[in-house]
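Blinded run. Sample ID left blank on purpose so nobody reads anything into the name before looking at the predicted structure. Input follows.
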Amino acid sequence: MNQDIQRPLFRERFYPRERRSVPVAREFVRQALTEWGVAGRAEDVLLCVSELATNALLHGVPPGRGFGVWVWLTGDGALRVEVHDSGDGYPCVPDAGEGWDESGRGLLLVEALADKWGVGEREPGKIVWCEFAGVGPPPGAERGEAARARRVPGA
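Blinded prediction complete.
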């Protein structure tokens, strides 16, 4: 029996430790979403990309290093965004009122907008990720440019 297995669509990009990397990362994900036919919750996804990339830039990228953004759409239409950095520390959602004058709301937004989020290990550093369920085309749907997108290694 030959069964066609739908592999997830995948893109990744590396960014230097520069302020302009955040909008460039957001545009990278916007382009992937457009090519994959993802319209639902796209603005939520892009806001989360901005927040995670900003956190990596401010807290997770030592001088001389950068951060990576991975995004993929699985066969069941879920979208996952990962931001890889090489910094120490473990991000968490701050308690209400804890240093919120200038910052501290980014992970609150990610927590509110994404269906799931979390932190994974990598050496060195960490991976901060978020997921959005059911935002992509149904399994087996024609995806145009998506058919030429890079596939997740080993998936």
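Unblinding after everyone has recorded impressions. The first strand starts at residue 9 and ends at 16.
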